[in-house]
């Protein structure tokens, strides 16, 4: 498995080294292995997790608390997926799928809440825009 230094991870993720360390400190990013000299050694999984965090932050506008919840659910889903793949019995596989469905539903609910807030904000801005346009029309005639 490839190991990456924090400079490489920062470059690939578009985050600063300080932000990466901070995410690790608050538990949003799981701690990497360390070399004998104490240098952080990240994996591709770390980079993928940082990509999820950036998307949750930038695309969805999640706060750090929301990101922590989002990432925790994602980690549980990854664990469930591993158990599912190792399970041979149909009943156990069904149970794993049901548990993963609950987690996906939770994440979709978080996204829906954010979308609803964005929709309300957009409606408010459209209302203001209409009032401004009406004012311009009245003043122009």
Automatic annotation (TrEMBL):
<protein>
    <submittedName>
        <fullName>MerR family transcriptional regulator</fullName>
    </submittedName>
</protein>
<dbReference type="InterPro" id="IPR047057">
    <property type="entry name" value="MerR_fam"/>
</dbReference>
<dbReference type="InterPro" id="IPR000551">
    <property type="entry name" value="MerR-type_HTH_dom"/>
</dbReference>
<feature type="domain" description="HTH merR-type">
    <location>
        <begin position="3"/>
        <end position="73"/>
    </location>
</feature>
<dbReference type="Pfam" id="PF13411">
    <property type="entry name" value="MerR_1"/>
</dbReference>
<keyword id="KW-0238">DNA-binding</keyword>
<dbReference type="InterPro" id="IPR009061">
    <property type="entry name" value="DNA-bd_dom_put_sf"/>
</dbReference>
């Amino acid at each position: 498995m490839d190991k990456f230094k924090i400079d490489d991870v920062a470059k690939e993720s578009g985050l600063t080294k300080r932000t990466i360390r901070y995410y690790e400190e608050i538990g949003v990013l799981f701690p990497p292995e360390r070399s004998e000299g104490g240098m952080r050694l990240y994996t591709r999984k770390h980079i993928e997790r940082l990509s999820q965090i950036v998307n949750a932050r930038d695309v969805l506008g999640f706060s750090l608390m929301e990101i922590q919840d989002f990432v925790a659910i994602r980690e549980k889903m990854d664990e469930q997926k591993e158990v599912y793949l190792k399970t041979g019995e149909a009943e156990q596989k069904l149970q794993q799928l049901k548990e993963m469905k609950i987690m996906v539903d939770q994440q979709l609910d978080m996204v829906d809440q954010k979308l609803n807030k964005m929709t309300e904000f957009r409606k408010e801005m459209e209302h203001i825009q209409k009032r401004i346009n009406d004012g311009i029309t009245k003043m122009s005639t």
